[in-house]
Amino acid sequence: MKLTQLATGLLLAGVMTGSALAADKIVIAHRGASGYLPEHTLPAKAMALRAGGRITLSRIW
Fold first, then answer.
1. pTM for this one?
2. Residue 45 in 3-state DSSP?
3. How far apart, in Å, are the Cα atoms of 25 and each of 12, 38, 48?
């Protein structure tokens, strides 16, 4: 009985902590959406922002 209560408590604590941490995350799109478009291009950056990225990073050569 105590083991079940402990497991349930730990599970609930993990679920609550995970949702609280997820709300504080900031999505950063390094090089834009480089998995879909050529990296460091304006279309890749626009796609990353549309997909939920809040910040895009680039290198200027």
1. 0.54
2. helix
3. 21, 26, 16
